[in-house]
Each structure stands twice: as structure tokens, then as C-alpha cells.
Design brief:
Blueprint: H1 21-33, H2 37-48, H3 60-69, H4 72-78, H5 89-94, H6 115-130, H7 134-150, H8 156-182, H9 186-197, H10 212-227, H11 233-252, H12 256-272, H13 276-295, H14 300-307, H15 313-323, H16 327-336, E1 361-368, E2 371-377, E3 383-386, H17 392-399, H18 419-423, H19 427-434, E4 443-447, E5 472-475, H20 479-487, E6 496-501, H21 510-521, E7 529-533, H22 540-549, E8 552-556, E9 558-560, H23 572-575, E10 577-579, E11 596-598, H24 599-604, E12 612-616, E13 624-625, E14 631-632, H25 634-640, E15 645-649, H26 655-671, H27 676-691, H28 695-698, E16 704-708
Length: 711
């Protein structure tokens, strides 16, 4: 035994024979106070002397007493408090419980700090909350020493007393010097390491699981193994065996949540053992469980909460699916969380790669901490997948300078057009054209994750020129959304229109605002019943009235989207929208909060009968991800009211561009009878031709995207 243990813990003789149950309980309670449920049991085992020297055991009721004190919440809390280190990143990232959202439209925080920085911050916060418990830990250590010293007249205890003192002193040094990083795992890590060295890693369940508590312990034991920096293949195999027994018990008892968590843990262990296909199968089982559970829920908020209860299962399936050639599985996982708030008649259970689409194609992106994946689903069923060599940090930097007005400004570091690097995203389109599976004039529906939703894909190059020369584009929430649009009944011709013009109080050229708005609708002036809302009658109620009573609504106003660093949380439903009049006064852009008609207020106005809404307003097409997988913003608010299609801008747009684009769009769509998609493309190309060959000039013509129906 002496060779198998570190020098600090070469226990000799019948060390533990006279140590009473109270010591085991006091030290166990100290570990419980630190959130170290498993550590408490292992400390008790150490005190009991379960090593190869055959030392007598303390009464089993000491351990029973400890177990009775352990609550599941405390055990789970430990997994959110393990200190930050490269070996523990996986557990911190993947095992943290997810809070059920109260609102499906809750914004998701965007944090561009490195993963390690986020973990370090979380560890420091957890350590601060734990620091008061050091006193309890110190009292337990003092009690332990006192009991050992009280037995000093027994010769066999002398060496063990000194050795255990050295161990506890080492623990104290670590607490003093590294409390910010290691406070919540001091005892757990030490004891577990000693057990590994002694080849006495105690599995918390027998091979055959017989009750719920044992099954839960199997999952917790797997977490302990994964979190241990000294883990070995033997330990991982032991965890795997226990998890398989626990899974069998959960399945037998029809315990859905336990089955999902056991499969999740099995996937993590298989990954650690480099058994990718087995890990993928486990993760896919978790996803199937989530889909089945969500399919029976009618409340969108509850459905979204269920689907996000294992948030990291999606990137794992996508990455492993692509690694092992399971492109369809990866594509399905990328679609499940996309656009679940509305327009999902297909439900979460439909399989994206099996759903037929005719007469159009679909492109989507999946973005995570590592970068992005691009999927292209063609009308003939062909599925392409592409992983651009663009990391997440580079992706954030490129999308931060999407507007042409920001190119070549000396005040911007690395300023310049991002079109070249971002065009690599569209490599699947190049392959599809090369293979003869796409033709010039086809339509492409796109659903983009943040931050790629900020990019007008139509100004990127594919066939050595901007792809808008060859394809029409429309933005959708998901493949399910696109299928709903394709199956919807197309309305008749536009018969009524409403023009809403809201210049700002500080606009010296208000008359120019009025004139440009009139020019935008000039092509359809004689074809529709037109109502104008302008002057002082442009408050929130007037805008809501227009949305409820006209088939076509053209709003020329100032859009607002709050400036914030990506790490800050922006609620686009409450903080973004349109600036409207208030109390008979034009909006003041220096005080947007006083004049903002938020996206939430647009939704609260009730269902809309509009076939189309044109937002001739700056940044009206920006959005941030919501808890249900939607891109929340003004255009989302309009479509959630039932508006079939929306045109909105990606950046600050000038009056001439807004007016010229919409005049060309209306002429092609309403006057000439083209589809929305063909009319949108025609309008973009006409502006590009008018603005000339200079990249920064013609790119301004790509400010507006079509969102929703392309028919």
C-alpha cells in the first residue's frame, strides 16, 4: 500500500479505529457547507479508513446521516462552482442548470469575452459567496486535529497524525493563496486525488442500480470523474458502466428527465474516451427526448424552455455530426431551436432534411463559440454543409463593419470592406452552381444566427460578382417558417395603402422627407386607395391604426436600435423600434426614449391586416437573438402580428436610397405583377446600376432586405 499512495497519505496501522462518528459528520458537514456533496461522502470514507490495510469501519449510520443531509439541489450547485481550469471547462460549460424563461421573447445575452474569461468570472463570484464558509471548514479541521492528538498515547497514531497534519496544512495554504479560483473544490480535489493514487476510487453505486438515489449518484459520480484533473481511462470506464446501469433504471421507470441527463453524461464520457459516434448517439437521444416533450406543449414559452434545458447538446450534435459524416443529423440539430416563437405549424418534431421543398432553396447558419457552420438545402433534396475558416472573434469583427459607410474610415482599426472574408460563407452556393443544381434566377430563403443576421448576404460575391445578380433572397425565421410561407394562400392585389411620414424635430429638411416619401409611393398612387398620416397626427395610436387598416403600409421615419458593446444585453423589443410623435411634437433624436414606439408596443397593438410593411427607417432590420431562437426586432414584431412581408434596412440609410428602392420595388411588384422576391431583386439591381462601379457606392443599394413572404 505504501507505494500506491502519495507521501502525504501513507496511513499506517488502525488509524481510524478510535475516531468517533462525530468527526466524520463534522467534516462531511463542512464539505456540504462548501457545496461539495460528493466530497462529503469521500471525506467520510477517508475517515472510515477504506484502504487496503483493512482498518475497521465506523458504524454505517454515520454515512447514512451524511447522505440524509445531502440535498439534490446542493449536489447540483457544486457543478456550477468548480474552479476554472482547462481540464474543467467542459463541466462548467455543459453541466450548469438552465433557468426556465418566463417569457419567450426574453433577449439572450451576448457575451464576446473568451470562454476562459467567463469561467474565471463565474469562479470568482462563486468563491466570494463561499468565503464565509471557511470558518466552518477551519473549525472542522481543528476538530479533526484535536481528536487525533487526544489519541497520541497510541504509538500507531503518531506517524499518521503528522501526515494528516501535513495534508490539512497544504489545504490551508491553497485556501489562503488561491481562494478566488479553488475555494469550492479544496477538499473534493484533494481527497479524490488520494483515492486515485490508492486505486480506491469509490463508485457511488453498485453495478446494478436499484433505486432513484443510486441512479442519481451514478450521474453525479460521472460528473466527479469528468471534473477531476487526474482522471484516467479506468475511472472513465467505471463511470461509463455506472451510467449505463443508471440509464437502464431510468428507462425502466419511465423517468424522462433522468433518461435525458444520463444520456447527456454518457455522451460526455464517450467524448472523453474519443468514442465520437457513441457520444453522438447519446446526444441525439437527448435531443429526441426534448423534441418529444416540446411537441406536446402548446405554450411557446414552455416549449422554448424545454428545448433549452440542454443548451449545449445542439453544438455538440452539429460538430460531431459533421465530423462523422452525419450531415442530416447536424442540420436537424441546427434547425430545432430556430424561430420557435411563431409560424411553426410544422412543429418541432419535423425532420428538416426530409421535408420536401419545391421551387426554392434554403440556406442557414449555425453560430457558436468556435465559429459557424453553413447549411444549404436545395429544392432537389441535396444538402451541403460548410465550415468556413472564420473563428468567432473574427466573425464578430467582420460583422461590426457591415455598413459601407464604415469602410475605409481611419478611426476604425482594420477598417475596410468585410465582403471578401464573409463571401467564404457562401462556398456551398458556388458548389451548387458548379454542380448544376442551382440556376440563375432561383430564389434562396435564408435564416441566419447572430451576428450573421446583420449581414445582407446578397452583397457578397459567389460567381465573381455579388450574388444578387444571380439569385433573389428573402429572410425567414427557419425552414419551418419558409415552408409555412410557401404553403400559405397568396392574397389578391393590393387595394389600400397608408403612408406614414415622421421626420425628426431636428431635421432641417422636413419637406424633403415628405417629398421623398411621396416619390416612393408614386408608382402605385393611381392603383390603390391611399391614406396619408403625417404632420402632427403621427403618434403610436396612428401607426397602430395604419397597421390594422391598410394592406400596404409605408413608414418613413427614424429607426432606433441601441448602441451597445456585444457583451451587453440589449432587449430589442423594449429598447428598439421607431421614433414617433408625442403630444403633437416631432420626435427628438437626442432623447429617443421619450418618442420610441418599441417593438413590444407594436405587438401590443394587435393583429395586422397588412400584406406588406415597408420600413424606410434606419437600422429597422437589426435584431438580437431571443430565448425561442428568433431574431427580435421591429421586423419580427410586425411579422408576429401577421404581416406577410417586411422590407427593412441593415444600416443608417439616406432618403434617396430608401425612396428609390421602394419606388422600384412597388413598380415591379404591384404594377408589373412580379413576385415580391423578383421585385426586390429588380429594385436592388436598378440601384446598384445607378450608383456606379465603386464598391462603397453600389453596396449602399443593398441596404434593404426582404423578410417573410417572397411570393
Amino acid at each position: 500500500m505504501a507505494e500506491s499512495l502519495p507521501a502525504e497519505l501513507q496511513l499506517t496501522g488502525s488509524l481510524i479505529e478510535t475516531i468517533c462518528q462525530s468527526i466524520a459528520i463534522s467534516i462531511g458537514e463542512a464539505a456540504i457547507g462548501c457545496g461539495e456533496a460528493d466530497a462529503a461522502i469521500r471525506i467520510a470514507d477517508l475517515v472510515k479508513g477504506r484502504f487496503e490495510n483493512g482498518a475497521p469501519s465506523i458504524e454505517e449510520n454515520a454515512i447514512r446521516g451524511l447522505i440524509q443531509k445531502l440535498r439534490l439541489a446542493e449536489a447540483r450547485e457544486r457543478y456550477a462552482r468548480i474552479p476554472s481550469s482547462p481540464d474543467l471547462d467542459r463541466l462548467l460549460r455543459d453541466w450548469r442548470p438552465v433557468t426556465r424563461p418566463d417569457d419567450i421573447l426574453r433577449p439572450m445575452p451576448i457575451d464576446t469575452r473568451s470562454h476562459r474569461e467567463r469561467l474565471d468570472t463565474a469562479a470568482r463570484e462563486a468563491a466570494k459567496a463561499w468565503i464565509p464558509d471557511q470558518r466552518r471548514l477551519q473549525r472542522a479541521q481543528d476538530t479533526f486535529r484535536s481528536e487525533l492528538r487526544s489519541a497520541s498515547d497510541i504509538a500507531e497514531f503518531d506517524a499518521a497524525r503528522a501526515e494528516m497534519d501535513a495534508v490539512l496544512d497544504l489545504v490551508e495554504v491553497q485556501v489562503a493563496n488561491e481562494v478566488a479560483d479553488n475555494a469550492s473544490e479544496i477538499f473534493h480535489q484533494q481527497i479524490f486525488r488520494y483515492q486515485v493514487a490508492a486505486r480506491r476510487v469509490e463508485r457511488l453505486v453498485p453495478t446494478e442500480v436499484g433505486n432513484h438515489q443510486q441512479a442519481r449518484h451514478a450521474v453525479n459520480f460521472a460528473a466527479s470523474v469528468l471534473s477531476n484533473t487526474a482522471r484516467t481511462e479506468e475511472m472513465l470506464r467505471a463511470a461509463l458502466s455506472d451510467l449505463q446501469s443508471a440509464l437502464a433504471w431510468f428507462v425502466l421507470k419511465a423517468n424522462i428527465s433522468g433518461t435525458a441527463e444520463a444520456n447527456w453524461a454518457l455522451g460526455l464520457v464517450h467524448e472523453e474516451l474519443n468514442e465520437g459516434p457513441e457520444a453522438l448517439a447519446c446526444y441525439q437521444t437527448v435531443l429526441d427526448i426534448l423534441i418529444s416533450a416540446a411537441h406536446d406543449l402548446h405554450d411557446p414559452a414552455a416549449r422554448a424552455a424545454t428545448m433549452r434545458s440542454f443548451p449545449n447538446v445542439y453544438p455538440k450534435i452539429v460538430r460531431l455530426g459533421l465530423r462523422y459524416g452525419k450531415v442530416g443529423i447536424a442540420f436537424n440539430a441546427s434547425e430545432v431551436l430556430r424561430g420557435t416563437a411563431y409560424l411553426r405549424s410544422a412543429g418541432p418534431a419535423f425532420r428538416a432534411e426530409d421535408t420536401p421543398i419545391v421551387g426554392w432553396h434554403y440556406l442557414s447558419t449555425f453560430v457558436d463559440d468556435e465559429g459557424c457552420v453553413v447549411f444549404l438545402r436545395l429544392g432537389d433534396g441535396t444538402l451541403y454543409a460548410h465550415r468556413p475558416q472564420i473563428g468567432r472573434e473574427e466573425l464578430d469583427a467582420l460583422t461590426s463593419r457591415v455598413p459601407p459607410a464604415d469602410w475605409h474610415r481611419s478611426r476604425l482599426r482594420d477598417a475596410g470592406s468585410p465582403r471578401g472574408p464573409l463571401s467564404s460563407l457562401l462556398l456551398p452556393l458556388r458548389h451548387a452552381f458548379s454542380d448544376g443544381r442551382m440556376q440563375s434566377g432561383d430564389h434562396l430563403a435564408v435564416a441566419l444566427d447572430y451576428p450573421l443576421n446583420l449581414v445582407p448576404l446578397h452583397y457578397l460575391d459567389v460567381l465573381n460578382r455579388p450574388i444578387v445578380h444571380d439569385l433573389s433572397f428573402s429572410r425567414v425565421a427557419s425552414l419551418g417558417d419558409a415552408i409555412d410561407i410557401d404553403r400559405a394562400i397568396v392574397g389578391g392585389p393590393v387595394a389600400s395603402a397608408c403612408l406614414v411620414v415622421i421626420p425628426a424635430a431636428d431635421n432641417a429638411d422636413r419637406e424633403l422627407h415628405m417629398q421623398s416619401a411621396e416619390e416612393a409611393i408614386d408608382p402605385i398612387r393611381e392603383m390603390v386607395t391611399l391614406r396619408r398620416i403625417k404632420e402632427d397626427d403621427t403618434d403610436k395610436s396612428s401607426v397602430q391604426y395604419a397597421l390594422r387598416n391598410a394592406q400596404l403600409v409605408h413608414i418613413q421615419a427614424h429607426g432606433f436600435f441601441p448602441l451597445a458593446s456585444p457583451a451587453e444585453t440589449v432587449d430589442p423589443l423594449l429598447q428598439a423600434g421607431l421614433l414617433v410623435s408625442s403630444n403633437g411634437e416631432w420626435p427628438d433624436r437626442s432623447r429617443p426614449e421619450l418618442y420610441l414606439m418599441s417593438a413590444r408596443e407594436i405587438i401590443d397593438g394587435g393583429p395586422s391586416g397588412a400584406m406588406h410593411v415597408s420600413l424606410a427607417a434606419c437600422v429597422s432590420g437589426l435584431g438580437r437573438p431571443g430565448s425561442a431562437g428568433d431574431m427580435l426586432g421591429t421586423e419580427f414584431a410586425l411579422r408576429s402580428l401577421g404581416v406577410a412581408s417586411v422590407t427593412a434596412s441593415h444600416w443608417h440609410v439616406d432618403l434617396e436610397t430608401a425612396s428609390s428602392f421602394h419606388a422600384a420595388f412597388y413598380r415591379s411588384w404591384i404594377v408589373e405583377g412580379k413576385s415580391r422576391a423578383a421585385a426586390w431583386r429588380s429594385a436592388v439591381l436598378s440601384l446598384m446600376a445607378a450608383y456606379g462601379a465603386n464598391e462603397r457606392d453600389w453596396a449602399r443599394a443593398c441596404a434593404f432586405s426582404l423578410y417573410g413572404s417572397w411570393r
